[in-house]
Design goal:
Blueprint lengths: L13 H7 L2 H9 L3 H13 L9
Helix pairs in contact: 2-3
Length: 56
């Protein structure tokens, strides 16, 4: 994943956030970035089996 260096914007590494199980980071990625970043974050969250409020 290209980190957006050329366009001057920070793009979260959604793959890394998913591998680490970083739910808060994935939710944050939904709120920022471009359409592609939000789409990747939404798909990653959809693959999680246990999204319970107390796990956040």
């Amino acid at each position: 994943m290209i980190m957006g260096i050329l366009d001057g914007k920070y793009r979260p590494d959604v793959s890394k956030l998913e591998r680490e199980g970083n739910i808060k980071g994935l939710i944050k990625a939904l709120r920022q970035g471009d359409d592609q970043t939000r789409w990747e974050a939404a798909r990653a969250l959809g693959r999680k089996k246990t999204l319970l409020p107390w796990n956040l």
